[in-house]
Each structure stands twice: as C-alpha cells, then as structure tokens.
Records
---
Amino acid sequence: MLDELGPTAESNRSTAYVSDLHNVYVTFYDEINKVYINDTQNGTEVYQSFILPWWRQVLWTVLFAGMVVVATVGNLVVIWIVLANKRMRSVTNYFLVNLSVADAMVSTLNVTFNFTYMLYSDWPFGHFYCKFCQFIAVLSISASVFTLMAISIDRYVAIMSPLRPRLGKRATLGIAAAIWAGSSVISSPNLIYFTTETTILPDGSTRRVCFPEWPDGITTRSQLEYIYNVAFMVLTYFLPIVSMTFTYARVGVELWGSQSIGECTQRQLDNVKSKRRVVKMMIVVVVIFAVCWLPFHVYFVVTSYYPDVVNYPHIQEIYLGFYWLAMSNSMYNPIIYCWMNSKFRRGFKQFFWCCGALGGGGLSRHRPFGTDRLDRSVRSLSPSRKNGTSIFKVTTKTTKFMKKPPGSPHLLHANKIHK
C-alpha cells in the first residue's frame, strides 16, 4: 500500500489502460507555471511527476529529516533503557521494545528512500532495494500495530483477571516472534511483485520507477492489488482500533469506575495508581496512532472511488503531508514514554548525560547508566518504608544507613552489612 506513494501512481486511475510499460508518455505538472507539460498531449506515464519549487523541496526535506532523526534516536534509546536495566524488563516493556524496533526500522530503512522517490519521481536505489524497502514498510507497520494489540490484550488480562498467571519471558518472546512472522506473511507480496523499470524521457534523461506488477496487471490496474490494499487497511487499522478501543474501555471502567469494598491498604492504592499510569500512557499511544494514520487511509479510500482527485495541482504536497503524519507516528512513542513514565524519563536523562548532551555538570552529579546502574540509582533515590523507618541503601559502599523514627534526634547510624 505504501508503494503507490501518492499521486505518482494513483494518477493512472484517470488514464486509459497502459498495456505496454515501455510505450508510455510523460506528463509533468509545472508547479511554478501551473500547467501540465506533455510532449504529445495525448498520454500519461505510469507515474505523474509533480515538480515542486526548490524551496518547498528544502522545506519537506527538513521536515522528513527531523522526523527520521527523532524517531531513530528515540526508539533506540527506549530499547537501550529496557535492555540495560533489569528492573525495566517487564512484559509490557518487552512489547515496547518490539514496538521500538519496528518504528526504528521503518524510519531508517524506508522513510528516507520513499520520500526521495516521492519528491523526485525517480528511484535510484536499485532493483533489490525496491523490493526490500516496500517489504520493510509493510512489515514494520504491521509489527507495530500487532504489538499495540498485544499490549492492550496483556493489560486487559492482567487487570480484568488478576489471579491468572502473567506471561513469562519465554511466552512474551514467542508472541513477539509470532508478530514478526505474521507481519512477514502480510508483507510478502511486496517482496514478490515489486519491480523496477527505466523510462527514457523526451530530453534524453532516464527516470527509474519502483512499482508493483501483479499477475493480473500493473499497479492501479490490478484487482488483486486493490483487494490486498483493502485487506491491509482492515488488518492494520480498523481491526486494531476496534480491538484496542474495546479492551481499554473495559480496563478504564475497571480502574476508574469500580469501587472496592472495605478499606484499601496503601500498597493496594499504589498498585492501582501504577496500573492507571501504564494504561493512560498506552491509551495516548493508541490515540496518537489512530490520528496519525487516519488521513492516510482516508486518502486511499477517496482516491480509489474518486480517481480524478489525483489531478489536483497540489495533490503531491497534500499526500506528502499525509505520508509525513503517518510516518511521524514512529517518533511520538518515545516522547510519550518520556513524558508519562518516570522510569523512562530517568533513563532518557541518563542517556543524554552519558553522551554529554546536557553538559559536563550532569556527568559529575549523576552516575553513568550501565547494565545495572539505573537499578541501583532508583533504589538509592527511593527509600523503602519498613516498620516506620526509612532505609536508604547506598550502592557504592557495603553500608546501610537507617534514619531514626520521627521525634528522635536526626542522627544516622551506620550498620555493617555482611558481604
């Protein structure tokens, strides 16, 4: 579905059927003079190139480059935080790592290449990467969506049936593997049917096209392609949205709407608050996903039934905006984690302190973040309550400091701990 990449391919829906890909004519839309340029005035190429002024090309390049950098760095930091800290290795966080891997893949291996293709209507990256790039696109998007569904189901089971055994590490990894396997099956047609074609333009230059050639016809002329695109839209958007809306609605009623009988202990209240924070964070992630991808899918539906829309002079920029919004979903998730989760926020701070991004002063005040350093820093900053006293565990020495109960002199007594 991402292969059509807007009006460059959709424009064929309004032209006559092209039986021979080599015998086609070239139509360009000159954005500056607001006219179509056609060397014969009677044909249209397999893709239609909308030439943008240079300053608009620079603007779009800055927008896409910023999105790719933020998405790649943010998701890699999320992966590092979870894998480098034992206390962060929960079922939900393992799924978040799976989601970050998919988002990092689509931002690094797909967005830059497809954006270049959309901007210049030329594919200079070769035949193999034409197949691989579109395969990665659908693979990553499918894996992201199915991971969000897995998180919502896990939260639903954990909250609605608290007595059930939680997923173990092996079961979680098995579900992640199944997600990638299923996503590979969904994306396999792109690996099979995508191909490249080189066209000679009237001025003697060459233009390379990356497009799917299905068994029953070329792109936009294939009924199989239409069925595949509709199935992809249902499986990766409408079905997940319905599923996650149901699960989080039930979870929300359970956490915010129900009242427990009798007096709750402080531990129970803290447990409920912790679950609420996680659920709120995931609801925000799902809402952002739905908003980012809705215009893209609406565009596909509209152009399928009203193909003349693609002849609108500014349709290239409209599609670029929809495509940027859909792909930018991969950069929002790390921002949401940092904003709504204190542990991830602490991990991001430690990462940038280690990289020196916040200046040398941060490094002197905070220990670097290693395989188990965040775990230790969390314990030293969060005293545990026991029998009315506060126990501060110092990680750099083998001593334990106990603070006197309220009312006693504020003296610290060191007690040796056996090694």
Note: Residues 266-305 form the longest helix (40 residues).
---
Amino acid sequence: MTTSRRLAERKVEKFQKNITKRGVVSETSTKKGKDYPVGPVLLGFFVFVVIGSSLFQIIRTAASGGFA
C-alpha cells in the first residue's frame, strides 16, 4: 500500500465512524431546566423601556389634544 492509499483509508474509516454517531447526543450537553436566555436585569430594562415609552406617547398625545 502506498502512503496516500493508507491515508485515504484512514480518513474514510474516520468518516464512517462519524456517520454512525450522527444524531446521538449525550445527555450532559442538553439543557435541562427553565433558564431564560437573557438575565432578569436586561429583561426588566427592556420592559421599563417599552412600557415607559408607551406611557410617554400616551401622555404626549393627550397633552396635544388627541391629535398627533
């Protein structure tokens, strides 16, 4: 066997092993629990900005007599 043929066979063997492992996920890598993707501080800030801006818009509209 030449070096390139041995190398090719080794690569094919490694590839075949990866194919049999596809879709198999260990349980340690899966997330369990109900963690939020954002922290509570960031979520609170977002709610503050959204509600604050809507209240500001309502007050501004009411002060101008209902016409924007």
Note: Residues 40-63 form the longest helix (24 residues).
---
Amino acid sequence: MARYTSTLCFLRWASFALVTLPRIRGFTIAPQADTRCSSAQVVQGGAFKSYARQIQRRQYAEKRAACSSSLSMAASTGSTSKDIPATPGLALALDNAKRLGNGDLNDLELHRGPGEAQRRRVVLDQAYQECERITGIFAKTFYLGTKFMAPVARKAVWAIYVWCRRTDDIVDGPRAMVRGRKSLQNDLQDWTNRLQEVWEGKPRDALDLAMVDVRQNYPSLPIAPFKDMIDGMVMDVPGIGKNRYSTFEELELYCYRVAGTVGLMVLPILGTAEGVSEEDAKFPALSLGIALQLTNILRDVGEDAVRGRIYLPMEDLERFGIDPENIMNGILDANYKAMMKYQIARARFYYKQAARGIPMLAPESRLPVQASLDMYGKILEAIEANDYDNFRKRAYISKTEKLLTLPLSWWRSLNPGQVDTNIDDSEFKLTRFDRIDMEREVFPAGDPDEDGSD
C-alpha cells in the first residue's frame, strides 16, 4: 500500500488538521464516471442512492412539465423565444423545449429557484453525512479529534479527508493493481481536471458537491496543495514512482506532497490568531506535515521493506555504513541504531518547528493540533522503547496513553507562548515548498503500455 495512505493521517493529526490515520487496505471510493450530474446525484450508500433516485425522478418530471408547458405556449401563440419577455425560467423552458424537439436530451436544466436551492441543501447535508460516515469508519482517531472543532469546520475537514482518500484510491485501490500505466495516467489527469471543476463550482457527484461548498465557505482555500498531493501519487505508483530516495531533499519533497500539503489545505479552515496571517502560519504547517510523515517512515521501515521500498535516504545509510540489503533483510545492529537515532532527532526538529505554529492558530483550533503534536510524537518514544527495532515490533500509542495525554495537551493549548515567525534552519535544511513554483510531476518517458495493459 502506498506510503501516502499512512500520511493521509496528516489530515488527522496535522498542523492545522488533527489526529492519526492508520494504514488501511481495501477501502475504495473510486472516482465516478465522467458524467455531469445534477446536485441530486450521489455516490455509494443504499439509502443515499435511493434518495438520489427520488430526487432525480422528481426533477425529471418537473423538466418535462416545464418543457410541455413551453411547447404548448409556443404552439398556441405562434411565439418564439425572441417574442417572449426574458423571464429566466420561461426562457430556459423554451430552450429546453426546442432542444427536446431536436432530440437533444443532454444537460437539460431547470430554473434554479427556491425549490432547487432547497433540494441542493438537502443533498449537501446528505453528502456531509456520508463524509462523516466514511471518516468515522476509516479514521476513528481523526474523527474523534474533529469533535473538538466547530461544526462548520469539522464538516469541511471531513470533506477534505474524503477527497484525499479518493485521491489515494486512484493509485492504491483494487483497480490500480490491474491497470496499466496509460490507464493510471489518464485517471490521474481526469482527477486533476475534476479538481479544477470543483474550484469552478461544477461537481460531478455529491462528494464533490461537499468540496464545492467547502471552497465557497473558505475562499482563501488554495488549489495548489491539492494538485501537489496528486503529484505525490505519481511518486508512489509501483513501477513508475520511487522506491528509493538518494538524498533527504528528495524525501522531504515527497513528505511535503503527501503530508505537508494537508496543512496548507486545512489552515484556512482552522483559522489564525489575531494579527497572524495565513502566510505566517504556513511554515509550521509544512513542518508538522513533514514531521508526521517522517514518523510514519521510521515506524514502518519493516513493513515498507516487505513491499520492496526503502524511504530512508540512501546518503544516510551510506553515512552510517548500512548496506540497503540489510534493511531488506531486517538486520538490527549498532550502525542501524545509530542511524535511527539520527533520523528521530531530525523528525523532532520538525516537530519543534511545527510547535511554533500553535500560538499562530485561532484559539479554538489549538487543542486538536497540540494533541496531534503530543500524541503522534510519542511514536518516536515508542521506537526508542523498542530499542529501535522497527523490523519486528510496531511502535504505537494505546488509547489509554492518548487519553492520558489530553489534559497536558489542553493545558499547553491554553498557554501556547508567543508568536515567533523567525525560521530556525541551523540544524537541518528546511525547504519552503509553498514558495517554489514546482513543475507538475510527469510519468517517465517510454512506452506507456509496456506492461501489456492499457
């Protein structure tokens, strides 16, 4: 499973998001067919589908009635659309009637009056309920963390979480295992186009509609991190992306795309403290995303080796005298332990930078972020407690430990310290990806169907 899935957790823990997502297999919300839909179209869930069909049937009946009425009027008066006052509903009905007469049954629309607005609201509420249901089932800890947020904010974060899950499913769902390179490339491009349509207020299904609503509620929400996350998908595609990283700079870029991006996604939703701009708070958001992803990488070295992946930078393995084959074979020796200490220190540096963002957040958003720092950072302590054996032992934090951490997190959120926008990069290189105009990730050159499928 793509390393990205474990970092969707940034949506849970993130600096500007919340609390951790476990790696989960078999969960798929595949992107829907490229068919434009009304606000009543929905995806998945029996009752939800049934409700959508009822809405669609009612809309279709209303369209027929409108078109029939306009046809009758035109026939009895000999009028054309040019002869009739420009009443929006009537003009639309006449246009529909003309198109029906020509056999054009595509994209007929009703005048969007109060009734349509009400139907849209009902479907939107159903969409958010579906986002909540998905989040509650597949990201329990994160879902619990969202309960600390205001109702509007928590719904927005649920919608973003589901978008990220759907993005991950493109390269990590069951269909991804049997598709060829060309098919996968087309799917990623279509998903990018679909994202742009969401930003233009054109949803293809109800889950897209929820994202459209988030975009309308938070106008400063940037599209760039969403696109960057899609690029992160390419980096994890088996046979196309990377299974080795030569330098830490390469790994840091990956961490940004699959986790740091989430901090930028949810920052407008969490809000900032008085006198602090979103630009000021970006750097801690990026740092926390990188810290969380590095933690995932250190926790899952053994699991990734089974999948043929090594995320630890090759330059670091060489520095500490470790043959990559030792990682694949799970050899735990003094050199490996020394290297792990170094990597843990690096991750903690990013946590330190991320902690500077707590006082920059709106007061009501500080607790979930502080809790993410405190709880997820304990995974590093668990690795140390396991004597750095992340081949045969999984570092985790029990529910009891998480609950016991909350009082301290609450106290810290009430006393976050002073805002400090000075960036400390004296120990490790910190790249400001939000200030770099990066080129979009592309598939490697070569025969797109060399694997024999399309």
Note: The longest helix spans residues 46-77.
